[in-house]
Design a protein that fits this description.
191 residues; alpha/beta; two-stranded antiparallel sheet; 8 strands; 39% helix
């Protein structure tokens, strides 16, 4: 009888050791759920592009391309909103999108932007913009072909995270090398 018990002893020991091992670490969170309320956090621009292009594809709209210059312009404006602790399209009275793009020497024939504050993840910001008809129209505007996105953090703000998404379409260049078409921002002609 003891012989059988001793024969099962190695099996029992193996089961006990297996139970003592720690569980494997959970898989990492997708970056669109990453909390951006920290000074070192950055929005995943490629994930944002992918999310927005998947959303546009559901409506049969051509994909956007990520433009590093628009990312920098969006980042500067997100930082400006965070520093002012104010969310809006013109936080200092002279920073409307068309003015900002021209100030950076960025050529465009059409442009629009979505701004937000208080969303801590890309998923939250994207969901908020989708639920707002004007922001949703901007994200699905078939004339837009380029995008830039950025966030900025203000630890002393009730919002913490400020967002800027810029969508644009470059001007048409004629065979003679001149720019053709009016410069517009969100459907308003800039003169």
């Amino acid at each position: 009888m003891f012989g059988r018990a001793f024969a099962l002893l190695p099996l029992c020991a193996a089961l006990i050791l297996a139970a003592c091992q720690s569980a494997p670490p959970p898989p990492p969170k997708p970056t669109f759920y990453e909390d951006l309320a920290s000074p070192t956090a950055r929005v995943d621009e490629q994930k944002a592009l992918s999310m927005l292009n998947q959303y546009r594809a559901q409506s049969g709209i051509a994909p956007l391309a990520l433009d590093p210059r628009l990312n920098r312009i969006a980042e500067d404006y997100a930082k400006k909103m965070a520093a002012a602790d104010k969310m809006g399209h013109d936080v200092d009275g002279h920073s409307l999108l068309g003015t900002r793009l021209k100030g950076y020497g960025y050529p465009f024939s059409n442009a629009g932007e979505n701004v937000a504050a208080g969303y801590h993840t890309l998923a939250e910001a994207f969901s908020g913009w989708r639920q707002s008809p004007p922001h949703d129209r901007g994200m699905k505007d078939p004339e837009m072909s380029l995008m830039g996105i950025a966030t900025a953090y203000n630890p002393n703000s009730k919002y913490k995270v400020f967002w800027c998404l810029i969508l644009a379409h470059p001007p048409v260049v004629t065979a003679e090398g001149t720019l053709q078409g009016a410069t517009t921002v969100a459907g308003v002609t800039i003169r």
